[in-house]
What does this fold into?
Amino acid sequence: MPFETTMSTVTIREMCHGDVPLITEIEKASYTMPWSETSFLSEVYSRHSMTRVAELNGRIVAYVCVKQVADEGVLMNLTVHPDYRRQGLANMIFSNAMDDLRRNSCRFLFLEVRISNIAAKKLYEKMEFKVIGTRKDYYLRPTEDALVMMLELSSHQLTV
It folds into this structure.
């Protein structure tokens, strides 16, 4: 189902093959272990993946990749370009994906986050994710534990 949502000058749309080189550059600027172009392309073409980009005045500034199988989803990647953080873009693109997850009868959404990533943890807590466990030495460069977090979607209202 094609869609496009515009809020102010931000447009959220499906990620496409041609977006991947720019997304990979944002990824490299954001992480010590960035996803490769191949990883993003795998998500773009996977039947179980939902991928979105947020454009501000025609420029990609954020993206999200979510995988859903049956009634469970995994937030694989949610990233905002370093120059555009703390402006509500993560919440905007995440909310867009959440609406589709709910429409697809997803009940639970999981994610892993570096234990030292305070900003991301605060964002996910604000989105009502709860810590349900830890994965020891999950991340490399540097080696670090991951917090496993979960959100129960059935307890949240669908936004319009």
